[in-house]
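batch job 7 of whatever, protein = GATOR2 complex protein WDR24
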Amino acid sequence: MIPSNTICVSEEGPANALALNKDATQVVIAGRNVFKVFSIEENDFTEVCNLRVGKNLNLNFSSIDVAWSTIEENTLATAATNGAVVVWNLGRSGRSKQEHVFSDHKRTVNKVSFHLTEPALLISGSQDGMMKCFDLRMKEVARTFISNTESIRDVQFSPHQAHTFAAVSENGNVQLWDVRRHERCLQQFTAHSGPVFACDWHSEMPWLATASRDKTIKVWDIHAKPNLEHTIYTIASVGHVKWRPQKKYQVASCALVLDCAVHVWDVRRPHVPLATFAEHRDVTTAIAWQNDPNTFLSTSRDCSLYRHRFSEAAHPVLWANPHGVCVSARGDVTHAAPDCPLPALHTNPASDRYVPGLGRKQPTAGSLRPQAQAALERLFPGGAASILTRYSGEGRPPCCVVACAKEYKMRGLPTHELAEHNAKVARAYNRHMVGHVWEVVRCVYGRPPPREPPEREPPPPPPAHTNSNAVEEEPLEEVEQWAETQFHNSGVLGMPTLSIYIPPHKYKIRHDEGSGWVSAASAHYVDVETADWTLPEEAFPLRAPPPAHQPSILDTTHGRTAAGGASPGGSSSPGSGSSGSNGSACTAPPNLEQTSSAYPGAATLCRAQPEEGESGPLWVVHEALRPHVEPAPLLALALRHHADLGDVQTAALVMIVLHEHRSDLFPYIDEGLQEHWLLGYIEFLQKHKLWNVATEVVRCAWLSSVWSLSQQSSSVTVCCGRCGRRARPRAMCDRCLPHPDLCAVCRQVVRGLYAWCQGCSHGGHLEHMRQWMEKHQLCPAGCGHHCQLG
């Protein structure tokens, strides 16, 4: 939205430069495809002359820069892309206004500038690294200045010394020349770390403002030796800079890339612009102030020419947060607040708009009233002073991360035991999510030892039976009618839920029960030694017996010899000869070791060593079964999550504790991220002075870039305790070489063990220093240093 007092005109193409006449009533814009003169009216621009006319429109009409003489009303000069400097006369009759063409430069001319008091002098700076001063009366080159640099980007005559001009180059240097001496420059200094694109002299002070690609604007005092006075920090490379008239500390700038706005800065508050004009939709290419400090013009690559009024500016400081808070790694809190905060300025409520991201109303362009505008400019520099307050964390409980780092274990035990210990440590400090990660590691990578088989208890002696194949029962007495029974076959092994008689020695009697008739389903009792395992034919569908080379595990478990009955896993048929219990043939039991090996991950069936003439019972050796879900990608995702939350301790230590299982995570965590976790955790430990733990992490590291840190020796700089000069390693001080080292306590020559303080470089006999430090805290040499004897 364009403010009401801002006027705009569209162009045929983007303009590279603009210039005002001496009365600031007309403006000329120049570019590759546009070259026009406009008259500045109260509410509009009026085209006066189009200089890009004629039959021969060559490269002389494609301009990079334009200048208007401050003395002659009708004299213009342009810098062409083909290296020509063209002089134009607006008072010339006819359509063509071209007066003269200087073709002395070999490469593109970047800047042209008229002398402030001599209308016949014109100076130019070119890409060939040379500057040429032209005499418009003689129409020839008066002097040539060689800068010995790659290229000259801007030249400006000084308003304080008539014969001095400044030139800035792409190597970051600024040169001051006397126009009467072309042999060498008066002064040269390095102003920026990158190319300098523009410069401008202050009208009242001997200050030179320079703009560079290093995103800074610097103000230099050129009164005697160049001295840096102020530095302004911007967000993009600065392409142009102009001092605001009648304002000592204010300067306007526009960016070379990225930023489309024009900013007005107060050099006393270098981080926040005083005013911002954001009407352009593309990068601003040129700015020029009118004689009035409240009005300036700008042109852009968006093919537009704007006239801005300072009353329509937006002020970022009004919605910026003046307070700042920061928390250190040790838990200290620092608060910065303005020393002199800006008072509540009266704005126009209709011009405010609500910004969802900020949660408050943001003043837009032109929101300040004239009185508030003046108050802001007056109070703006004082708002840069801040009060810094630090709140120390002394007396609070120690950091849980540091406490865990002291108690964690990284090696010396199996993975699951280390994970179990670290989980207990994490939960002790209320880090339950971290403890859960350690528990997962313990469960996934833990391998408990196999349990021993249970001891065999001798079975009770069997009672005397008249029939070995029949269960000892009395005549049955049904408790309920069979048709009304809810679970018809809810007994053990599918037997009907009926009341049976269990002998006293076969059933363990509880205190609240009696012996005798009980329910078979509730008793869960089957006399294996006397039960008849023959199933009715309708219990299972008829099928052929399994082949002898593929026995069933169930048949193997419950198989019987030829002397006993048929196996419950087998099927009986009339034609197979297995319908009766007597004389039935059973398949021989298979090898248990072959059966267990055919099912990987299953329980292993083993038979106890039987006594002679007896069959041994079976027991099951349980093995730890791995989960069916692959744990590596899930664990890698959990470690990434903790690292993103800032917990590199958990991510690094889990990788260390995994040991040989660490390679499972390599496909999901690249080596660069692993190195980042380890180095981040080592840096955290060193910040908290946990040197031993940091060294242990380096020793346990599996990356060469990390464990190689242990191969780097620590260097200790030694300085002389007498003169304070730095001494060579394992050598005496060159200045104090004739004088031996004396003990700071007894003032005698030290022969033997010598103890010295790294802080003040004083020392003496080891025993003398130990006795002194037991009673005193300050250095015995009298330097006032608080020495500590390790």
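notes: The radius of gyration is 48 Å.
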